[in-house]
Design goal:
Helix content: 25-40%
Distance between the termini: 27 Å
Shape: globular
Strand content: 15-25%
CATH superfamily of the domain at 574-719: Glutaredoxin
Number of helices: 21
CATH topology of the domain at 574-719: Glutaredoxin
Radius of gyration: 28 Å
Length: about 725
């Protein structure tokens, strides 16, 4: 079989047989009728001793599980390798932003499950700054606004839900579509009858990768009965979703770029129902920033009702080592920060971690057969909660492209659009996270605890004393200096009667009032980001570039402005289906099917737009590309008018008539999007806009639609 070169020049996959031409005699596109490569089609490997899979995902965190769910829904067989034998219960990510919750709405109701299971919003909407959990409150910030609850810019609100609980829900969803979680002993060692698809292989670490003519050969190490063994798995694509210290990234030889070692922290997972009840009653919040002469830390209240917390404590090696933070020491620090001794503190786990701000130099490697997703591709400071959210959105962007690639509809070069779309977003989110982290540091700086001074003191000790005096003495010097620094937040200094303390408290209030402290929500970036280049038709007009857009909008702004620009997420407005007995309302985002990679063309009921829609349906039918037409009617339209769609779009029936349900001050969908009703909008399966134009500007509908699909699907072979 001949091979087809993917973007980047590597031989990617085999073409099955002949290609077919489609279109008019004047303008044709080359369309590969069969799956583009045998590895995704499920063909043989040429090696009978290795089980074969189209896709293997490494990492069973939220990103890997979402990816496996989407691929399975879309008909791509896959398996997941997870190096741990059990899922961690140590809470990590916990904030789910608007865009991720929108994605979760279409994962068999996952978003609804999260909303029902998360703590009441009044228990987590605030950040609290205090001298201890029972001491003086220095200030607080409420991060929820009324528009968040009114669901004006999105059909769903943000959520506060711990990562380990999210993993539990995702495993239930995967179980519902036939996925099994298996330990090494559950699978057996026989290779001949081994079936790995729809399995999460716990205790399997990706230890080697080897390129083959038809894909990639993975060595998966596992421990069975105390003996290390290796299982060989052949696949078409290897997707690395194995976190910030990605083994897949290392094996692929892909480097990270950015800032390293911004801060080293100890993460202490503990439970105390006494503390949870106290905070629920006296000062509920999500994050507590605690500054007192005895200790400094950030407490994350994962669940006040059940008393589940994570305490983040900065530390400075080599004078302070992770091993110094025993359970007893951590309990003592917790008591200092609480201000009294809860009777039921139970330290469950203690982990070190390092804060980085880095993005992979590329997302695709090893002859286009390894793709990085989530934290494997980007590592952010936790400020703003962009890590997991960006990773889930990576998976959402990639899944539909892999499906169209498998089905022979898209070219292999569509894989490159994953990188060209998602990597700029990661770079931007890295910068935003760093900026937000610096904003968080402005509070202790205002109180006389400038973190840059602490870092400088640490560097001086390392450079001047490191090779001269023992570590224990260095530790005493460092902690002595830090103790003097923490005295700045003593009650003696930090009060309104002390001129210095009064000045510092006024400075802190100013930072909070002006929104210059650590922020939780970024709607302008979360919902308003857009792709400049990728699986879309770039707009040929002098509009802002991605870089200019970053300068245009303040990073501290909450404002989201709906846009129908190509590359943007489809704006949300409530709609009502016409010509049905169902009188319920739904979001414009629901015009895009979540169960299959379907495109949607949104039009107004105009003659010229119907003509373009007919061309779209005809050519989509030739491509075997799921596409439907969504006709948006003005509010108050009657059934008699709607019958026009039936005659205009016949013989096709894959269309829907909907009626606007606008909310003041917006009068219509088109007005909200700042376009005219002559506009047509092609929406991708991931709810981003692939193309827009004015229907009366199109002189040859057939040719224009072919051009659009050629660019969106990356069908580069074109015959004029």
């Amino acid at each position: 079989m001949p091979s087809i070169a993917g973007a980047g020049g590597g031989r990617l996959f085999s073409v099955n047989g002949a290609a077919a031409y489609w279109g008019s005699s004047r303008r044709r596109l080359l369309l590969l009728q069969r799956p583009l490569f045998s590895s995704l089609a499920g063909g043989g490997t040429g090696d009978d001793v290795t089980p074969h899979l189209p896709v293997v995902i490494v990492g069973a965190g939220p990103v890997g599980l979402v990816l496996s769910f989407l691929l399975t829904k879309f008909g791509i067989k896959c398996a997941v390798l997870e190096k741990n034998v059990e899922f961690t219960r140590h809470p990590r990510a916990h904030f789910i932003n608007n865009r991720t919750m929108e994605i979760f709405r279409k994962l068999d109701g996952l978003a609804g499950d999260i909303e029902r299971s998360q703590p009441p919003v009044d228990l987590w909407r605030k950040f609290v700054y205090c001298t201890s959990l029972s001491g003086s409150i220095l200030g607080s910030v409420d991060h929820m606004k009324q528009e968040d609850f009114d669901k004006i810019i999105s059909p769903i609100s943000v959520a506060h839900f711990s990562q380990h609980k999210l993993v539990d829900l995702l495993l239930k969803k995967l179980d519902g579509i036939g996925f099994q979680t298996c330990l090494p002993g559950d699978i057996g060692s026989s290779t001949q009858d081994l079936v790995l698809e729809n399995k999460i292989l716990m205790g399997h670490e990706c230890s080697s990768v080897q390129l083959t003519d038809k894909g990639i050969l993975i060595g998966a190490s596992f421990n069975e009965a105390g003996r290390m063994q290796e299982r060989k798995i052949h696949c078409g694509l290897l997707l690395g979703a194995d976190g910030a210290r990605s083994t897949v990234r290392e094996l692929a030889g892909i480097h990270m770029k950015g800032q390293r070692d911004l801060q080293k922290l100890v993460s202490v997972h503990f439970r105390s129902k006494d503390l949870g009840k106290y905070l629920s009653r006296e000062r509920p919040g999500m994050l507590f920033f605690i500054f007192n002469p005895g200790a400094i830390g950030v407490l994350v209240a994962h669940d006040l009702e059940h008393g589940e917390f994570v305490l983040q404590i900065p530390f400075y090696p080599p004078q302070q080592m992770f091993e110094d933070f025993s359970t007893k020491i951590c309990e003592e620090i917790i008591v200092k920060l609480v201000g009294w001794e809860p009777s039921d503190v139970q330290v469950l786990d203690i982990k070190p971690w390092v804060m980085h701000a880095e993005v992979a130099e590329k997302y695709i490697g090893c002859d286009n057969r390894i793709i990085l997703v989530g934290d494997a591709a980007h590592r952010f400071p936790p400020a703003g909660g962009f890590g997991m959210n960006t990773g889930v959105q990576d998976a959402h962007n990639l899944a539909w492209k892999l499906c169209l690639l498998q089905n022979g509809v898209a070219s292999p070069s569509i894989l490159q659009t994953y990188e060209s779309e998602r990597r700029p977003v990661a770079i931007f989110n890295t910068e935003l996270s760093v900026e937000n982290f610096k904003a968080a540091m402005s509070i202790p700086a205002a109180l006389g605890l400038d973190p840059t001074v602490a870092n400088s003191v640490h560097q001086v000790i390392n450079s001047s004393l490191g090779s001269v005096i023992p570590r224990n003495l260095q530790k005493s010097v460092l902690e002595g200096l830090f103790s003097i620094g923490r005295a700045q937040v003593s009650d003696y200094i930090l009060n309104e009667k002390n001129p210095l303390g009064s000045l510092r408290l006024a400075r802190l209030r100013s930072i909070l009032d002006e929104g210059k402290s650590l922020q939780l929500q970024f709607p302008a970036e979360d919902l308003g980001f857009h792709y400049e280049l990728g699986a879309l038709v770039a707009e040929d007009c002098a509009e802002t570039t991605y870089e200019a857009e970053k300068q245009k909008h303040s990073k501290r702004s909450r404002e989201y402005i709906p846009s129908a620009k190509a590359g943007s997420r489809l704006p949300h407005m409530l709609m009502r289906a016409l010509s049905t007995s169902n009188e319920g309302v739904f979001s414009t985002l629901d015009l895009v099917n979540g169960d299959k990679p379907e495109f949607a063309l949104i039009i107004a009921p105009l003659k010229v737009s119907y003509e373009l829609a007919r061309a779209m349906l005809k050519i989509a039918d030739e491509l075997k590309l799921p596409t439907k037409i969504c006709v948006i009617w003005p509010q108050g339209s009657v059934d008699a008018k709607v019958k026009g769609s039936r005659s205009e779009l016949a013989p096709w029936t894959n269309y829907v008539d909907v009626e606007e349900v606008p909310r003041a001050p917006v009068n219509s969908w088109w007005e909200m999007c700042q376009i005219t009703s002559k506009s047509v909008i092609l929406v991708r399966p991931d709810e981003h806009i692939a193309w827009r134009t004015e229907s009366d500007r199109v002189t040859d509908a057939d040719s224009e639609v072919r051009r659009v699909f050629s660019e969106v699907l990356c069908l580069t072979s074109r015959i004029q």
